[in-house]
Write a structure and sequence with these properties.
Blueprint lengths: L2 H7 L21 H14 L13 H13 L2 H16 L12 H5 L14 H11 L1
Length: about 130
Amino acid sequence: MTDAEWVAVRPLLPVPAWLRGRGGQPEGYCHRQMLDAIRYLVAGGISWRAMPADFPVWGRVYAFFRRWREHGLITEFHDRLRGRVRGREGREAEPRQGSSTRSRCGLPRRCLPPHAAMTAERRCRAASSTS
């Protein structure tokens, strides 16, 4: 993450409780390190345990990610950044309701697993062919 990116992202991150005077211990890792590790993981498509040694240990990175996800901070962080980018482009901060890719290309609302698409007739044929 470049310094310019960090300047834009830092105010959007949650402030740790110990910095607000609500108690607790200082965190052992910088949020910038954690974000760099998560971005590397997403960009490379690697597993958590394959995290390179120059990042914090994968367990700590995953703990940060899980905590942020469980509190809805990942979604909030994404929405805030999207709003900033859209605002800079002169568009509304929130996309319109009807601009979903799903509705434009005709994808079904809910994707069924492959075994759920088997009809009763196909099940009967499959069962009779094995006996």
